[in-house]
Amino acid sequence: MKSAVLVFPGINRERDMARAFREVTGVEPIMVWHTETELPDVDVVAVPGGFSYGDYLRCGAIAARSPIIPALRAHAAAGRHVLGVCNGFQILTETGLLPGALMRNASLRFVCKEVRLRVDNAATAFTSAYAPGQVIRCPIAHGEGNYFADPETLAELEGEGRVVFRYCDAEGRITEAANPNGAVDGIAGIVNAAGNVLGMMPHPENLIEALQGGLDGRGIFESLARAA
Amino acid sequence: MLKNDIAITPELIKAHGLKPDEYQRILDLIGREPTWTELGIFSAMWNEHCSYKSSKKWLKQLPTKGARVLIGPGENAGVVDIGDGQAVVFKMESHNHPSYIEPYQGATTGVGGILRDVFTMGARPIAAMNALRFGAPDHPKTRHIVAGVVAGVGGYGNSFGVPTVGGEVEFHPRYNGNCLVNAFAAGLLKTDEIFLSEAKGVGMPVVYLGSKTGRDGMGGATMASAEFDDDSHEKRPTVQVGDPFAEKLLLEASLELMASGAVIAIQDMGAAGLTCSAVEMGAKGNLGLTLNLDKVPTREPGMTAYEMMLSESQERMLMVLHPHLEEKAEAIFRKWGLDFAIVGETTDTLRFVVEHHGQVMADLPIKDLGDQAPEYDRPWVEPKRQPVLAAADVPAPQDYGRALLDLVGSPNQSSRRWVWEQYDHLIQGNTVQRPGGDAAVVRVERPNGGHAKGLAFTCDVTPRYVEADPYEGGKQAIAESWRNLSAVGALPIAVTDNLNFGNPERPEIIGQFVHALKGVGEACIALDMPIVSGNVSLYNETNGEAILPTPAIGAVGLMDDVTRTIGVALAADGDVLVLIGD
Amino acid sequence: MKARVTVTLKHGVLDPQGKAIQGALKSLGFAGVDDVRQGKLIELELATADRAEAQAQLTDMCEKLLANTVIENYRIELI
Amino acid sequence: MKARVTVTLKHGVLDPQGKAIQGALKSLGFAGVDDVRQGKLIELELATADRAEAQAQLTDMCEKLLANTVIENYRIELI
Ligand SMILES: Nc1ncnc2c1ncn2[C@@H]1O[C@H](COP(=O)(O)OP(=O)(O)O)[C@@H](O)[C@H]1O
């Protein structure tokens, strides 16, 4: 599987993302600088985490207006895969490739910890390595991960099974206590209508080796490799 | 003729924190009255913060050498060999006074400063820690300061992209008027790619990089060394605002530039920015340096030479570049959207010359600015030691369960999770031991493959002990850091220190300092942990009440195989607990 | 010409900052404070002196960058 | 009564947000934009109908919470 990782000024988890692709798929991804206007011929484009443009104005807003974005849209329109993690998710919502918006955490604090996620749709190209309803561990690290969408959008997401991950407790229950940022209905990750663009706040790329405390994040990359 | 349209009055001299005898020393050195700009330059170079005038004598006695030490104190950060052609670069620095005045921005700029110290050496930062001390939990200011400082440490480190893996948080009424914010950073580099601040060659371009210069923190370095009084709020507009985004760009651009081979010398602009960095680069290289301030990128119109020389705007660097590689260097900085300007050149005159609008605003002997800084052997008295308590004299608790609950529920013993959860401690994907244990462990991959090594980090000191007996307390801080590193399976290799004390003009305070340092030094020798970098913060005192003496220690350990690290969690039911030591 | 753009959350969009401020004001003892909303203020200087042109430019800036029209409204003032 | 509080950075204080917005506007092709500064806008509803009282309350809120008077100025408007 061939992959590319977009790099915007202020992005800081591009190396983590590249490592995950390398470790799991054995292929080194191509790093693509934001001023490029074309993408290499790859199966997956990852938009990694960080603080593009310092997250000033709005998270992901400035990056979403970069020269590379039209090429990203074209890649998505062609049905190829796009994975946005954390700031990457925020950038994808700002481009309109995914609906909704990510607001300040309800606590107003940045939070870095391990949470549990329930895989609510294991039939996507990003999650086929997981079982439906499986509860996985995954780190989060963000200050603005509070997913919001209007009721119509939410109904659409739910109706089409496009909520892929939700914050849950160890038993898979969606509770307020298990929700680290106030996201509506515990939403941690969604896909677009075509199912080829995933955005998620948690960082699967930081849980792919035993040394990091677990392998639960590998499934995303394994699924993508399978789909390629 | 030097422009000198502001009269140098005794009041002005005093406002610059210079004592009459120090001013006399200036007159003797330059043989005339200084200009206003020159007075500013002297005050910046000769304040406690930059010159270490009260502490130098004692710092010289610390053990700083060891088989692994590649670079000890004196550069931006210490460098320690960890084998395989790799080295760890680290240092700790305080931002106490600014954090008390504006907790969020004070903490951010503290973290920014220490990160710059590390990447100025050519290292990519791989870990950060923060040692924090606040007033009593029920003191009216404490909550505000804690919230701001913790958010600021996180706000900067998280955005910059370094995992904050450890630290300390303590509360005590003696910090009511002076919180402590000590930031530690460590980075990794190859031993043959270490960058230093020593300028080399005559006629080399001196280049300004990073963010523009504004009137930030005017006289901030002077503030950081001045004892607080109740109208210290008047000093408020000197607050600097941190821009972690600019710093991240500066990191990437600097590392790219260093890799390109264009850099001869590099120095970050910290306290008293342009002044200290330029003087240091020239003086270390036995060269003169001329700056043309017309070229300095400024954020505000109408800045004077005085203001530019003393500005503490953050996220700036000064470099000496190879002349034929300027264009390449500029292209790299433009790519990262940063300012780049040739602002001067090295000379063979040993003079520090500052020009502005075609006029010479300062012309000073460059070596003397550093070398001739006052150095004091301040009078000190033997500290009063608190008597040793016999264990038998301490009554046993009535109810051990209750006592245990009180302990774990007390502000100083309770969980620090609420702090480190606000810090990204997982970024970079190398955190093997997360915060919450004895020491944090970060994976270090070998350049040529093979099983990964580990670096362990811990911050320690128990100020109550140092107060009770400075010598024993100093030893204890080192011993505790040694134990914390050993407990995760690492071999302790070196330390950095951040010596926070009260007003050195009081003999009791210097007495504490001298004895604590003696303890620290002896313990370092006994445990073979040289001190490779550090920082001194004096005048932590409000209305005559000093903080508890707080020589914070940041210690680093090495493990050959990172998979051998051991945590604090019990592994399984039925595990045997063993108590060792006494 | 100087201009001021204010960007506010649309009605119905949750505002964690506003909510937190409301809570904080309450715990500081300010009673009867309600419906707190936080928005952004962007002040800028435009080269043009033509008000119509400035208005058009600013609208374009808001649509393209300054506001996320999915969740935010904006208002332009020329000063 | 409705009130609006605007909080802006004091003159001379670095505004990283404003700087980033200015850069982004430039790279989107908006020419001649200068001196971009970002501030905060807080809208709230007060129980009182007395303007003088509202003004006093709001000043108190600004000093205690809404503005960081070390680096920020505030302005109060009653609507
Ligand atoms: N400010 C902080 N930032 C990050 N981690 C912290 C901070 N304060 C405490 N910790 C972490 O919490 C744990 C417990 O701290 P502490 O009680 O000081 O430990 P010890 O006394 O065992 O050295 C340690 O892992 C420490 O690194």
From TrEMBL, chain A:
Any GO MF annotation of the entry: glutaminase activity
Question: Looking at the record's lineage, which domain of life comes first?
Answer: Bacteria
Q: Which reaction does it catalyse?
A: L-glutamine + H2O = L-glutamate + NH4(+); N(2)-formyl-N(1)-(5-phospho-beta-D-ribosyl)glycinamide + L-glutamine + ATP + H2O = 2-formamido-N(1)-(5-O-phospho-beta-D-ribosyl)acetamidine + L-glutamate + ADP + phosphate + H(+)
Give the main localization category.
Answer: cytoplasm
Q: Where is the active site?
A: 86, 203, 205
Q: What is its EC number?
A: 6.3.5.3, 3.5.1.2
Pfam families assigned to the protein according to its UniProt record, in alphabetical order: GATase_5
Where, per UniProt, does this protein localize?
Answer: Cytoplasm
Q: Which SUPFAM superfamilies match?
A: Class I glutamine amidotransferase-like
Part of which pathway?
Purine metabolism; IMP biosynthesis via de novo pathway; 5-amino-1-(5-phospho-D-ribosyl)imidazole from N(2)-formyl-N(1)-(5-phospho-D-ribosyl)glycinamide: step 1/2
Its keywords, alphabetically, are: ATP-binding, Cytoplasm, Glutamine amidotransferase, Hydrolase, Ligase, Nucleotide-binding, Purine biosynthesis
Which BP terms does GO give this entry?
'de novo' IMP biosynthetic process
Single GO cellular component term: cytoplasm
Checking InterPro entries in the record gives:
Class_I_gatase-like (IPR029062), PRibForGlyAmidine_synth_PurQ (IPR010075)
Subunit record text = Part of the FGAM synthase complex composed of 1 PurL, 1 PurQ and 2 PurS subunits.
Q: What does this protein do?
A: Part of the phosphoribosylformylglycinamidine synthase complex involved in the purines biosynthetic pathway. Catalyzes the ATP-dependent conversion of formylglycinamide ribonucleotide (FGAR) and glutamine to yield formylglycinamidine ribonucleotide (FGAM) and glutamate. The FGAM synthase complex is composed of three subunits. PurQ produces an ammonia molecule by converting glutamine to glutamate. PurL transfers the ammonia molecule to FGAR to form FGAM in an ATP-dependent manner.
PANTHER family given for it? PHOSPHORIBOSYLFORMYLGLYCINAMIDINE SYNTHASE SUBUNIT PURQ (PTHR47552:SF1)
Record's HAMAP family? PurQ
Entry protein name: Phosphoribosylformylglycinamidine synthase subunit PurQ
**Species, as recorded:** Siculibacillus lacustris
Q: What is the lineage of its organism?
A: Bacteria, Pseudomonadati, Pseudomonadota, Alphaproteobacteria, Hyphomicrobiales
Automatic annotation (TrEMBL), chains C, D:
* Subcellular localization(s) per the UniProt record: Cytoplasm
Q: What does this protein do?
A: Part of the phosphoribosylformylglycinamidine synthase complex involved in the purines biosynthetic pathway. Catalyzes the ATP-dependent conversion of formylglycinamide ribonucleotide (FGAR) and glutamine to yield formylglycinamidine ribonucleotide (FGAM) and glutamate. The FGAM synthase complex is composed of three subunits. PurQ produces an ammonia molecule by converting glutamine to glutamate. PurL transfers the ammonia molecule to FGAR to form FGAM in an ATP-dependent manner.
Pathway entry: Purine metabolism; IMP biosynthesis via de novo pathway; 5-amino-1-(5-phospho-D-ribosyl)imidazole from N(2)-formyl-N(1)-(5-phospho-D-ribosyl)glycinamide: step 1/2
Work out whether the entry's keyword set contains Zinc: no
Family, as annotated:
Belongs to the PurS family.
Recorded GO molecular functions are:
ATP binding; phosphoribosylformylglycinamidine synthase activity
Task: Report which gene this protein is encoded by.
Answer: purS
Catalysed reactions, as listed in the record: N(2)-formyl-N(1)-(5-phospho-beta-D-ribosyl)glycinamide + L-glutamine + ATP + H2O = 2-formamido-N(1)-(5-O-phospho-beta-D-ribosyl)acetamidine + L-glutamate + ADP + phosphate + H(+)
Protein name listed in UniProt: Phosphoribosylformylglycinamidine synthase subunit PurS
Keywords carried by this UniProt record: ATP-binding, Cytoplasm, Ligase, Nucleotide-binding, Purine biosynthesis
Coarsely, its chief localization is cytoplasm
GO CC annotations on file: cytoplasm
NCBIfam families xref list = phosphoribosylformylglycinamidine synthase subunit PurS, PRK05974.1
The record's section on InterPro entries has: PurS, PurS-like_sf
EC number of this enzyme? 6.3.5.3
